[in-house]
Protein 1
Amino acid sequence: MKFASVVFATALPFAALAQEVSDLHLNVVPRTADEAARIAAIVQPTTDFTTPERFEERPAGAATVRVHSTADAFSQPSGNISFERELDFKVGDGLFRKIWVSAPSSTLASDGLGPLYNARGCQNCHLKDGRGHPPEGPDDNAISMFLRISIPASDNEVIKAIADFIPTAPDPTYGLQLQDFGIAGHDAEYRLDIEYEDIEVELAGGEIVTLRNPTYRAADLGYGDLHPDAMLSPRIAPQMIGLGLLEAVPAADILAHVDETDADGDGISGRANIVWSTEFDQPMLGRFGLKAGAPTIRQQSADAFAGDIGISNPLHPNGWGECTDTQVACRTAIDGGDEAHDGLEVDTDGLDLVTFYSRNLAVPARRDLDDPEVLLGKEVFYETGCTACHTPKFVTARLEDQPEQSFQLIWPYSDLLLHDMGEGLADHRPEARATGTEWRTPPLWGIGLTEQVSGHTYFLHDGRARSLLEAVLCHGGEAQPHRDAVVAMPKDDRDALIRFLESL
């Protein structure tokens, strides 16, 4: 089923719709009945915590790589990639690391930056392909963090094909995200200002943990006031590993975990985000981004080129990036479009290479998974109910043209669904079907290597948590009972839980 228009009188049931259209980006070989039965058995959560599970050491299946002891641990190609395809990975890596300059420039292959932008290259935000961070003091910039922005919209502006789609529109002056840099002659849109309030939490045994409750402000606005109904959402750049494997999970397997009305009574009601695909011109299952707002790696890459760097590409052909109609100087500035690249700053070949690179950033192997404390922590993780959202295992689809991602048992510890995380983490900015209190369950693989790769231990969508324990204690909404169980458990169990997360 493919829709010719974005406006419909009646919304189709979202689950059926997503199953029909969400795997269009994959060349999938249907599973046999025998394969389906084997997969159903192998992805069942374990009940034996005395030893590691079979294949658990390789969270990305054959695509897993050994753990590098340097900051490059997240920058390796899939472990099962061929020599010929590794060459494409390296070319894509070069584009991902490229530092863009403003046009006109003698470096024709690298000009076209901005005019407004958040970073001069992909790697500037996704540091070493890892996690970004909020500014660390008044002398640090927000290079890997920005504010998304939108305003409420009326029903006639939304995609009617998607049930429960929440209508929003760009801010008329500032668009869909605020850029904190501008090329020469163009003012930046804002400066990110953050204030933190300390909140103390007492744990069983008397330990005190201090959490940070941030308040965000768009300061020093360069183009006038925000719309009075503007909704802001802080975002740090997430880690990049394993994206191709997440993209290769069949939509039906993700939707099997949907429980919007909490029919099983466990307090968890995961919801799928169904978003509009600019790549395929129809609704698709959202998988990527902090609210699952992007359906494919290619679209997410194209959106980032345009929004973060101001680079035109096949899905966003305008040379001015994210500039709005009111930013006239930005709209009329010289861009880096090149006839040799279809008038774009990044053409189809370039976008496909960056997509291939992003799809094949490898997941490192597990560490210390047979350590008794790690095994205890795994048991605590499962028995506390964390797996209700952080689904341990999936098996990817058989893919004819993606051998690295084809038919792999993977351990992302995510259901890729939306969950209500409560008022404490709310941004009150909806995105497609995601409400202002909902976030996609983040994959946990590689989380224990964050400090090694990125040089910090900031977690959650805005980096407010300074440790894994703080991240757990910030959970609310559907996860409130599980968070409270962590507060109440003996210190040895809590320490083991963190030790298990550090082994992922």
Protein 2
Amino acid sequence: MAEYTVILDRLELPMRLGIYPHEAEPQRIRINVEMLVSYACPPSADTIEEVLDYDFVRDGIHALARTHVFALQETLVEAIASLCFADHRVRQVRVRSMKLDVYPDARVGCEIVRTR
């Protein structure tokens, strides 16, 4: 068994996320994802077919941003965690979201860790 942590770091995208009237328009959100992925053995042929292709996570997050309005960051990070678990090799996921422009002096966010 071989385990790797696959990381999608500092993905920034506009998203409708929030409960306040001023959050009705898309705002900048930063997403970080870490997935603990298990393989039967280490990759030997140096090809993408042997490992998790993280494009599905990035593409899935972009799709969520285009098609969903989230009231809570907690709901957003749960949706992203579920997306990651679509690949059966993902054993654990850590997802963090950050609203970058809510306050002039701070960012606000939410992070979860989920294990299969």
Protein 3
Amino acid sequence: MSPDVHHFLLVFTAYIVGAASPGPSNMRIMGVAMHQGRRSALALAAGVISGSFFWGTMAATGISALLTQYAQALVLLKVAGGAYLLFLAIKAARSALTSDERFARVATASPSLPPSKLYQRGLLMHITNPKALLGWVATMTLGLGPDASSTTVAIILAGCAVLSVTIFCGYAIAFSTGPMVRGYRKARRWIEGTLAFVYGAAGMKLLFSRV
């Protein structure tokens, strides 16, 4: 196996570990898939994927590396991302505290968000996540040397794009299957409580960590 192939495998493995690890975006996709179904989850996943493409393009052009030098830009991202995650934590906590009977009535009376809105929310979640920015900077730093060619850049971006679609849409499809949906209905309050904890912890970490 040529050194180039080894190099690309290393880069793609690092990307998979970062993108597939349970985090706010993946947890949100899972929750929407189990609660609202596959179409809604795929719309949310599309927004997350678009946000990932955005940061990937920024990283490939070197703009994101420049952005990391400006503390104010990262602070704004941290505050926006942290606040949004805390908002999701509050919503999940309220859902966890709602009885199954009341939840069923509210769900029936409240129309689901259209795919366009879910797409926007997925995009917002990823665009305001400085961890996504820094993850792409790390990926590109690992993948691109000082003499990297445009072909190398294109291969890394294309490969990570395919992986991004596979991972995020995979979460949406897997967690919208019948067994998952039935499991959600039975353990809804526990699942929403777990989501509230994950969102809250991630939001607080963003707001108070030194990114």
